[in-house]
Write a structure and sequence with these properties.
Blueprint lengths: L7 E5 L4 H12 L3 E6 L2 H13 L5 E4 L5 H15 L4 E4 L14 H28 L3 E6 L12 H21 L4 E8 L8 H4 L4 H9 L12 H8 L10 E4 L12
Parallel strand pairs: 1-2, 1-4, 2-3, 4-5, 5-6, 6-7
The structure holds NADP nicotinamide-adenine-dinucleotide phosphate (NAP) and D-gluconic acid.
Length: 256
């Protein structure tokens, strides 16, 4: 039920971090996995890392905000692999700037990667899934799909929108046996959150106290939930956002 043998999976932003763990999980479950990024050096290092782990995961340059680049990339994948069964819209950025100081361009840059790009990529992949009789699309949302906090307004707006894009595409494509779901990680230890954990940042301890699991999540914590949503086991799960957050969203927080 959880096997991905014979499936082709594309993870956007898989050179490191959460995307790397997800691509690893899908490959370990039997899928033929490809990933993309925008920095050649990171892609090369990622491919080496996969190889060190005995995984043959291919990496390519493709900027998910550029529709023409994405369409050409999908054409190449179809030519090379014949199909795309699983898409994980993982690539994302964040800018931590107070709203009054954030420029409109900075706001748009975050929304472009975190909300517009998952639409561009899903729209490019869906016709191939429809032709193949179905597929799985997994959007990497966030705790910020539900909660706000200071300095991350663009990110939270984009991730809130990504939750609703997930539900909307699930509504449109369920009839083609395409399941579109989200995974909303809590606070995960990756390069993206490194500034929140380093140099004695009090946010580090705050998040541990705010999380029932009393720890930061790791990218590996997302492997099982992703294999579940990529496999037959979730064929009747559609439009769902699965929070993988150690319980933070359910918890008022430890009394100081
Ligand atoms: P990360 O360490 O910053 O990695 C981001 C990845 O996205 C990199 O591989 C980067 O590639 C790629 N990327 C960025 N812009 C791109 C573009 N325009 N086109 C293609 N690839 C692009 O982030 P992360 O912490 O692993 O997070 C991954 C996803 O999970 C993001 O969507 C993030 O919002 C979400 N998330 C993270 C957390 C957390 O606590 N870490 C929690 C909830 C949700 P390059 O290296 O080539 O730039
Ligand atoms: C932040 C963090 C969060 C995490 C994640 C939480 O600055 O608050 O970066 O946004 O990245 O999205 O789920």
């Amino acid at each position: 039920m959880f096997s991905l043998d014979g499936k082709v999976a594309w993870v956007t932003g898989g050179s490191y971090g959460i995307g790397f763990a997800i691509a690893t999980a899908l490959s370990e479950a039997g899928a033929n996995v490809v990933f993309n990024g925008i920095h050649e050096e990171n892609i090369k290092r990622g491919i080496e890392e996969y190889k060190k782990n005995g995984l043959n995961v291919k990496g390519y340059i493709c900027d998910v905000t550029k529709e023409e680049e994405v369409n050409a990339f999908v054409d190449m994948l179809i030519k090379e692999f014949g199909r795309i069964d699983i898409l994980v819209n993982n690539a994302g950025i964040i800018k931590r700037i107070p709203a009054v100081d954030m420029t409109v361009d900075e706001y748009k840059e975050v929304v472009d990667v975190d909300l517009v790009a998952p639409f561009i990529v899903s729209k490019a992949v869906a016709p191939h899934m429809i032709r193949n009789g179905g597929g799985k699309i997994i959007n990497i949302c966030s705790l910020m799909s539900e909660l706000g906090r200071e300095t991350v307004c663009a990110y939270a707006a984009a991730k809130g929108g990504l939750k609703m894009l997930t539900r909307s595409l699930a509504s449109e494509w369920g009839q083609y046996n395409i399941q579109v779901n989200g995974i909303a990680p809590g606070y995960i230890a990756t390069p993206q959150t490194a500034p929140l954990r380093q140099d004695g940042n009090p946010f580090n301890e705050y998040i541990k106290a705010r999380t029932p699991a009393n720890r930061w999540g790791t990218p590996e914590d997302l492997k099982g939930p992703c294999v579940f949503l990529a496999s037959k086991a979730s064929d009747f799960v559609n439009g769902h956002v699965l929070f993988v957050d150690g319980g933070i969203l359910a918890y008022i927080g430890k009394q100081p």
